[in-house]
Design brief:
single chain, about 850 residues, mainly beta, eight-stranded antiparallel sheet, seven-stranded antiparallel sheet, 4 helices, globular, disordered N terminus, disordered C terminus
Length: about 850
């Protein structure tokens, strides 16, 4: 008989399903659904041997049977080394229930169950991540890791935990025993791996494991759920009693496919689920406890909707007078509201008239009377009714600030301002100036003229002006800030770099592109607005590379999935797209978009943007980490956008026979640049293998992917290219690797006098380091490394060994008529909300 030393409550009748000898798989016996399920394999290692009854197959790692660190009288399986360890047992099967115990030790390991295990490149993996305090389900298919679910769970050190996993068809459910009861960790639907053996994987710390049980999967559950009553906040549920069930577990989700969480564990056949949201669809599944390894399979999902109710009143209504004839109103969102209404009356009157109805959270009421007090009432509504109202009062100004306040002329040292004169017998205008829109304003003019010339200013500097008037003793409001920058006529290191509206240029990780159609330079960069990660890609245009015009957002991110339906721009750009989840997973707020670059495709007549797309591998995890490591692209009909996002990919891989410096996560793409050769061929240059190796990958004719993934000519039902089923890239034809293992990132490629150059930095996080330049006669090499391109010409110069405190982003070939064969190199310091001119360097390159 297979060995079992410690008594286990749920195995009271196990002898009914066991026989003597080795594994039970060849003559599997399936138990009756209301009785104890058959146990096929079990091992508690009490005989001190893991090579027989059952036999464990060691794939990697040092394994032995040793004493339990928490109980010296108990024998357990032990991996003694800290390398990646694999061990498996049993024959290949499809459906199963598996239970194992793992010891956390110092909490540095990643031990877990491998159900449906084929080899080190194909398996499911239910693991405990000790350092991260997480329980995670991943799959590895053909060597590619994909997270399926990640759940936070505090794991104590030097503690035994029992993990259980149930596989039935495409359903995978995982549990951890918590205070003596099975706690659901995940329920996932996945069809990637249909069968396999059972194994263990571990890494980074030695691991102890004990009490393996492989049993037949739980019985099918035909229970039917019904509901006889719903309210706006509750659902009354009932179900048929099941013979042999000792308890029932009810699970709830907001989607039919997954994401279920337990709401009750009860001995009754009914339950009232309370505290729900109004007018919301919920899905329920039922499982029952019956003395098996874990609960039964789940019932079919039951769908029910709570009834509607009117929303709550808005929490606050703010009203601010903007000028003599307009008031701005704002309010917070109200749950379950489909819209808002605003009515207005003069103070003291009950004669309200509706002035707004819509879905927005702001409204500017215009064409009001100067110097009047108005009362506003705001309500929220939905199909069930309207809320109570929230009130605010505000008084408009008696007069407006002067109209047509604008810059009439700008030089490198002066700004001329003008405005419309106001009528009155005694009119005084006051102009104040600051160096930022929200800075401290100081008066620079007071008088009765309606023009002012501000002289003695600094070249290439942003200034902000506000004007206020006093007419016959009555003061106007101050105008909105007017931003203007003096013209830049030369490069002055160390200064803040404003656009022509006076605001600091916000385009980090810059990419530059000269467009022959518009005869302008375009600067694309991460738009951070003072925070991280970026909230989209901003674009600026210039004729001379010194004075830049803000052209707005080139690539706009999403706030939520609702933007596909409710946001005017997003709903138009992505109308009809069936891959909304993938778009949302790549470009929603909180995901990482870095180093955007743009080139023009002469064949498709499209502007194509590529960028480093990152964030957690789990699309539903908002953690802004660098796990995804993909490159994504967008297209536009204009260099200023809007660019329409398409998709992201993993890229090329190290060829067979060459060392992959990070083989556990292939095809990574992080810091990157884009290059268009003289013949129109596009290339993506990017850091891969955990930033240890630089890749140059050839793009397809439409610049939508790398050629190495398109050898079979596959297309979807709409004729669009799709990737090959297996990776078949030809090294030296589709891609090459540069600096293998050299830990290079921040690539910037350009062509000069027939030769190809790549500037790169080292990989030291956000800290500066020494740059390298490498040159080749052909884009696929061979590449020859030259000396550090940064040279100190004066003792006061920054340290060239740290690239002057910067990191490469882009190189701009400048027309020789403008800059005498020099190359402008734009570099970023890591500052995310402004660009300074110390980041622009000019370097002469030898063609020899």
């Amino acid at each position: 008989m297979d060995k079992l030393r410690k008594p286990i409550a749920f195995m009271l009748s196990a002898t009914l399903a066991l026989s003597s000898g080795p594994l039970m798989y060849p003559d599997r016996v399936h138990a009756d659904p209301i009785r104890i399920p058959a146990t096929w394999v079990q091992d508690d290692f009490s005989d001190g041997d893991y090579t027989t009854s059952p036999a464990w197959n060691v794939i990697s790692g040092n394994w032995q049977v040793t004493a339990d660190p928490a109980d010296a009288s108990n024998q357990v399986l032990f991996q003694s080394d800290t390398e990646e360890g694999f061990i498996s047992t049993g024959e290949s099967i499809s459906d199963m229930a598996v239970s194992m115990r793992f010891y956390t030790g110092e909490g540095k390991g990643y031990p877990g169950i491998l159900p449906r295990f084929h080899d080190k490149s194909n398996y499911y993996y239910f693991q405990m991540q000790g350092p991260n305090n997480k329980l995670v389900l991943t799959k590895k298919v053909n060597g590619v890791d994909t997270p399926l679910k990640s759940v936070d769970y505090t794991l104590a050190q030097n503690t035994w935990y029992t993990l259980k996993v149930v596989l039935s068809g495409s359903s995978i459910r995982g549990y951890i025993v918590d205070n003596g009861s099975d706690r659901l960790v995940f329920d996932v639907i996945d069809t990637s791996i249909t069968s396999g053996t059972v194994g263990i994987r571990n890494r980074w710390q030695s691991v102890h494991m004990d009490d393996l049980i492989i049993a037949e999967p739980p019985p099918v559950n035909d229970a039917l759920l019904t509901s006889d009553e719903q309210t706006a906040s509750s659902v009354s549920l009932q179900w048929t009693e099941i013979a042999g069930a000792t308890n029932y577990r009810l699970y709830r989700s907001s989607t039919a496919e997954g994401g279920y969480s337990q709401v009750t564990n009860t001995g009754s056949s009914d339950y009232v689920d309370e505290g729900l949201s109004t007018d919301t669809v919920y899905y329920y599944k039922l499982a029952y406890e019956y003395g098996g390894l874990t609960e039964s399979l789940w019932s079919a999902p039951f769908e029910v909707r709570t009834t509607s109710s009117a929303p709550q009143a808005p929490g606050e209504l703010k009203a601010v007078a903007l000028n003599a004839t307009s008031v701005k109103l704002s309010w917070p969102a109200v749950d379950k509201s489909t819209g808002y209404r605003v009515v207005r009356a003069k103070a003291g009157s009950e004669q309200y008239e509706q002035v707004y109805e819509g879905k927005g959270f702001t409204f500017t009421d215009q064409e009001l009377e100067p110097g009047n007090t108005y009362s506003y009432r705001l309500t929220a509504f939905n199909a069930a009714g309207e809320s109570a109202f929230t009130v605010a009062e505000v008084t408009t100004y008696f007069i407006d600030s002067p109209a047509e306040f604008a810059a009439t002329a700008v030089t490198d040292t002066s700004i001329s301002l003008g405005w419309n004169a106001l009528p009155g017998s005694d009119v005084t205008y006051t102009v104040s100036r600051a160096t930022s829109a929200s800075g401290t304003y100081q008066q620079v003019y007071s008088g009765n003229e309606n023009t002012f010339n501000d002289n003695g200013l600094t070249m290439g500097t942003g200034y902000f002006y506000m004007i206020q008037a006093t007419v016959d003793g009555i003061a106007s409001p101050a105008s909105a800030p007017l931003g203007v920058a003096t013209l830049r006529t030369s490069i002055t290191p160390g200064q803040l770099w404003p656009d022509q509206n006076g605001k600091p240029i916000d385009a980090h990780g810059a990419g530059f592109f000269y467009d022959e159609q518009t005869e302008k330079y375009y600067w694309y960069g991460e738009y951070h607005t003072g925070g991280w990660p970026a909230v989209g890609v901003r674009v600026y245009s210039s004729k001379d590379l010194m004075n830049w015009t803000d052209e707005g957002m080139a690539l706009t991110t999403l706030q939520s999935m609702e933007d596909f339906d409710n946001d005017p721009l997003i709903s138009e750009l992505y109308a009809g797209r069936e891959d909304r989840v993938n778009i949302w997973a790549d470009i929603r707020r909180g995901r990482i978009i870095e180093r955007p670059k743009v080139i023009y495709n002469d064949k498709t007549k499209k502007y194509v943007m590529w960028a480093h797309m990152d964030g957690d591998k789990d699309p539903y995890n908002n953690n802004a980490n660098y796990g995804k490591a993909q490159a994504g692209y967008a297209i536009s009909d204009s260099p200023t956008g809007p660019f329409v996002y398409q998709k992201s990919y993993r890229m090329d891989r190290a060829p067979e026979g060459e060392k992959d410096y990070f083989p556990s996560d292939r095809g990574m793409a992080r810091d990157m640049t884009l290059f268009k050769d003289d013949d129109g061929t596009g290339y993506l240059i990017y850091s891969s293998e955990e930033n240890l190796t630089l890749y140059i990958s050839k793009l397809t004719d439409d610049y939508s992917d790398v050629t190495g993934w398109h050898k079979e000519g596959r297309t979807d039902d709409k004729g669009n290219p799709v990737r090959d089923s297996t990776y078949q890239a030809e090294y030296g034809v589709d891609y090459v690797r540069v600096f293998p293992g050299g830990q290079r990132e921040a690539p910037a490629m350009f062509k000069y006098q027939g030769k190809y150059y790549i500037l790169t930095s080292g990989a030291s996080g956000w800290a500066p380091n020494e740059n390298k330049v490498t040159v080749a006669e052909h884009i696929f090499g061979p590449w020859s490394t030259q000396t550090n391109p940064f040279v100190r010409t004066l003792p006061s110069d920054p340290d060239p060994g740290k690239a002057f405190g910067t990191q490469t982003t882009s190189v701009i070939p400048v027309d020789p008529r403008m800059a005498s064969s020099s190359m402008w190199e734009i570099r970023g310091t890591g500052a995310i909300s402004q660009m300074t001119l110390q980041n622009m360097c000019s370097c002469q390159l030898n063609s020899e």
